[in-house]
Specification:
The chain is mainly alpha-helical. It contains ten helices and no strands. Helix 1 packs antiparallel against helix 9.
């Protein structure tokens, strides 16, 4: 479990709940069915219309990714592993690492070094891995954009609900009993949109984006290391290249 994702969601909703409790009005006044329909129903409808069904089916797995702890090794350890493989290949040949490669749990690393074991040349290996990386990037980007759209759409639906409530309120100024419910729709839809966009979609989007960025960097390290090993570069050059990639990462 990714504690920061869970902690951010729980803490965010807890602070909002605490503010409601301290306000003294209770939770009941913050529940408005028309507002819920406009924001949640509207956001669901717009999102469904913007993406393909095959993409929408991946929303639940994407949420699980946001909540799951990253199992891959830290980047410095990944560099050390690649340098180790490079050293073993230099000393004993590529077949010496075959068994260790088969035991790898990182699928991208396993595939890259299996290509080396199979004797794939650097000029062929690198384009193959780059193509695979492009597909991973596209797949992840769709999921990130879905939650980005949910956040933006929720805010827009909140504003639409506010306009609906204001129109209803202005149309019933002569009836004091109708002004209250219309004002509730106007205010609560904005609140619901902000909550859905910020305390759910925004957190998931940014966590997926962060994990995607780390995975892309790890894959770039693997591609650089594997292609240099296949090209029979020196251990020193491999270390320098991979460490340079790590230096370029933001703190």
């Amino acid at each position: 479990m990714d504690k920061s994702t869970l902690g951010g969601l729980v803490a965010g909703w807890a602070f909002v709940s605490l503010a409601i409790i301290l306000g003294g009005a209770g939770f009941g006044v913050y529940v408005d069915v028309p507002s819920i329909i406009i924001v949640f129903g509207g956001t669901l409808a717009v999102t469904a219309g913007q993406f393909e069904i095959s993409e929408l089916k991946r929303i639940t797995p994407a949420i699980k990714v946001a909540f799951n702890e990253v199992k891959s090794e830290p980047l410095p350890e990944l560099v050390e592993k690649i340098v180790f493989y490079a050293t073993e290949v230099k000393k004993h040949g590529v077949m010496h690492i075959e068994q260790k490669v088969l035991e790898e749990t990182n699928p991208f690393l396993k595939e890259a070094f299996q290509l080396i074991v199979d004797g794939t040349k650097s000029d062929v290996l690198e384009p193959l891995l780059e193509t695979k990386l492009e597909h991973i990037d596209k797949r992840h980007s769709v999921m990130i954009s879905i939650f980005g759209n949910i956040g933006g759409t929720a805010g827009a639906m909140g504003m639409i609900g506010t306009l609906v409530g204001l129109v209803a309120m202005l149309a019933n100024l002569s009836d004091p009993a109708a002004v209250g419910p219309a004002m509730a729709v106007a205010l609560l839809t904005t609140m619901y949109g902000a909550l859905l966009g910020t305390l759910f979609a925004g957190i998931i989007e940014n966590k997926l984006s962060r994990k995607h960025s780390l995975e892309m960097t790890a894959c770039e390290v693997i591609i650089a290391g594997a292609s240099m090993i296949a090209a029979e570069e020196s251990i020193g050059n491999i270390k320098m290249k991979l460490n340079a990639i790590l230096v370029e990462l933001p703190e």
